[in-house]
Amino acid sequence: MSAARGLTYLLNLVSGSDHLRRIHMTKTIVVTLSSLLLVIPSPSFAQGTSAVPFLLISSSPEGNGMGGTAASTPSDDALATISNPGQLGLFSLNSGFNAEKYSPKTQWLPGFAVAGLTYYSEAANVGANIGELCGLPFSLSSGFGYSHIDFDLGDFVITDETANILGKFHAFETSDNYSAGLGFEYYLRVGLGWNFKKIRSVLGPTAKVNATDFGVLVDAPVIRIVSALTGDDYEILPSLRPLLDISFADVTSNVGGSVVYLDPAQGDPLPRTATIGGSIEGGLVYQSAYAERKLVTFSLIRQADDLLVLRSSSSNYSYQSGLGDIDFVDNVLLGKTNANVNIRKGWQVQVAEALYVRGGSVEGPGLAYSTSGYSVSARGFIRLIDLWAPPAAQSWIEDATKHFDVRYHSSTYSSTSSPIAGTTTTAVNLVLDGFSF
Question: Contact 317/269 with Cβ under 8 angstroms?
Fold first, then answer.
C-alpha cells in the first residue's frame, strides 16, 4: 500500500469510522515522502514510483561528495558496501576490518526545517584472504558485514474535526543489511557481493519485507598489469612511477516482494534499481623503502541509475529486466541522461593519502543538484613525515601505521531549487588492513 493509502487506513483504524477525518500532524508524511523523491530517481506515473524510497538514498558520505557514486569506485569506506556489496569482495582481499558510523545523524531536507527528520547509517565489515592462508598462486578472499539504516520521520498527532487528539505515533523506516562478498585477484581485482535486507516501514500501519542486492566491482590496475607482463617498472624517476586504474561496477538492488501495510491486494513495489558505472584514476605513486603510496591522484567517476518499476495503474506494476533504460555508451561513457535514467558524476583529488577533496553532480528527469566533500586520513598525515625522516624513523612510522587508520568523511548537497540543499553527511571510518596469514 502506498503512503497515502496507508494514512487512509490509519485514520479508519484510529477513529473507528469509515469516514475520512481531517488529520493534523506535526509533520506530514505525504509531503515528506514526496519531497524525498526530489533527490532520488524522478517519478513519472509510468515509471519511478515505489514504496520505501529511503532505500535509494546513498549512505556513504565519501561517495556522496562525488555525486553519490559509491557503487562505482573501489573504496574501503565501510558504508560503501550498502551501495555495492561487491565492495566487500574487494576489501576482503586486504584481510581487514572496517567500521563506520554517522557522527552526528544527518538532518534530512533542511530546507523544510522539520525537527526530528533525520537519516543515520552505520556499518562494519571483516574479510580474510583465503589464498594467502592456503598458499594459492592467486588471491582469493571472503568477507562478511552488517549495516543499518535508520530514517526517522518524527512524531505525528492524529486529531478529529474538532481538534481532539485521537492518537499519536512515531513514524520511521529501517533496514538491517547482512552482507557477504568474495574477492579474486589475478592481474584484475574482482569483487562479488550480496546484501540481504530486512526492511521495516512504520507509517502508522507497519510493513515488513525482505530484499536482496547483487553487486560486481572490477578493478584493473593498468600500469601494474602491464609492468607484470613486460617486466618493466615504468619509473618516471627513481621510486616514482605512474598510476592508472580503471574500474567497472554493476549492481541490481532491492529485489524482493511487495511492500504491504494492511491490504495484500494493494501492495506496492520495492524500489528495484539497476546501477552501472565506472571510474578512472591516474596519478603518481611513490615507492619508499617500506611501502608503496599514492603521492597525488585524480579520479573521475560516472554512474547511471534506473528505477526498474513500471506502473500501468495505481495498483498494478511490473519490473523491467536487466539494465532497464540504461545505455552504457550514452549514459555512462558520454554522460547523457534520458527520460528514466539518473546520471551521477564525480571527481576526486587526493594528496599523499592524507587529504581528499571531492565534487560531483546528479542529473535526471526533474532532478539536478551538485555535491562537494572532503576526507582526512590520520595514517596519511602521519606518513607525510616519511618524506623528510631518516630511514630509522621511516621504519618506525611504517610499523605504527601499517594496519591502522582513522578517517573523517564529510559531504554536502547544493541546489538552488530543492530542499536537499544544505544536507550534510559526516562519518568516522576506522580501517584495519594489510594483515597476512
Answer: yes
Residue 275, in any domain of the structure: yes
* Residue 369 forms part of a structural domain: yes
H/E segment holding residue 193: strand 188-202
How many Cα neighbours within 13 Å face the side chain of 428?
5
Q: Write the burial class of residue 55 (CB in 10 Å: 0-12 exposed, 13-18 middle, 19+ buried).
A: buried
Confirm if 295 and 317 have CB atoms less than 8 A apart.
Answer: no
Query: Cα angle at 17 between 14 and 19, to 5 degrees?
Result: 115
- Contact assessment for residue 271 and residue 306, using Cβ atoms and an 8 Å cutoff: no
Q: Which residue has the higher pLDDT, 130 or 157?
A: 130
Does 342 reside within a domain? yes
A 10 A CB-CB count for 202 gives 16
Q: Quick one: 413 exposed, middle or buried, by C-beta within 10 A (0-12, 13-18, 19+)?
A: buried
Residue 153: which H helix or E strand, with range? strand 139-159
Mean pLDDT on 76-100: 94
Virtual CA dihedral for 325, 330, 335, 338, nearest 10 degrees?
Answer: -40
Residue (of 301, 341, 252) closest to 48 by Cα position: 341
- Is there a domain that residue 437 lies in? no
Q: At what angle do helices 3-15 and 29-36 cross, to 10 degrees?
A: 170
Q: What is the number of domains present in the chain?
A: 1
Using DSSP's 3-state secondary structure scheme, residue 308 falls into: coil
What local confidence, expressed as pLDDT, does residue 394 receive?
A: 64
Report the C-alpha gap between 183 and 128 in whole angstroms. 10
Main-chain phi, psi angles of 56, to 5 degrees = -90, -5
Tell me how far CA of residue 215 lies from CA of 187, 195, 228, 248, 347, in angstroms: 20, 9, 28, 11, 22
Alpha carbon distance 275, 70 (integer Å): 11
- pTM of the model as a whole: 0.86
288: CATH: 2.40.160.40
- Cell triple for 104: 552526528
Beta-bridge partners for 375: 356, 409
Cβ atoms of 52 and 201 within 8 Å: the answer is yes
- The DSSP-derived string for 340-372 is TEEEEEEEEEEETTTEEEEEEEEEETTEEEEEE
Residue range of the domain that includes 285: 3-432
Above pLDDT 90, what percent of the chain? 54
Q: Considering Cα of 304, then 309, then 312, then 314, what sign does the dihedral take?
A: negative
pLDDT above 60 (res 38): no
